Amino acid sequence: MLTRMSDRRDALIEATIATLRERGFARTSSRAVAERAGANQALVFYYFGSFDELVLAALQRVSVERLDRYRSAVEGATSPRALVAALRTIYAEDVESGAVAVVSEVVAGSVAHPALGPRVVELMQPWVDLVESSVRRVLGPTPLGALVEPRELALAAVTFYLGANLVTRLDPEHAGIDGLLAAAEQALVALE
What we know:
This protein has helices at about 1-25, 30-35, 40-50, 50-75, 80-95, 100-110, 115-140, 145, 150-170, 175-190. It is mainly α.
């Protein structure tokens, strides 16, 4: 029985991720998710208590999966340029996989659903921590490391990531995020 309950809950989360990716926050509803999952709409409220909690569970799943990928990629970076190169590669994966869509839709949706805001910020904290530890490790021994406060740079990087997600979602053909990251990578070559 536990497996079946877990399977239904997972199916609803996966259906929410797919619906957010394809339809956006404004057109994602408990009904649309239930239909996609082949489940009764009442199960959304049974398993999650509310539509907002379901959306947060979907964001958490995407966040945890992507955080693991980012962590393994940035741990191998030994220079600022290598760190940006790793982020550039992973960001492209995020766009391709639809993770960018899910994150940006939930962030944008939190404006209309203010109760989501504090929980979205809470889910951002592990990202800030990852970036901060990466900045300390990679920039610490460099002259640039003496110029920046790691926590502030981490907050700026996560803010950039969220903004980049929104811009990419709004104008996927012309967002220019890859070009911006490539320019940062080249600037860091000059600093090395």
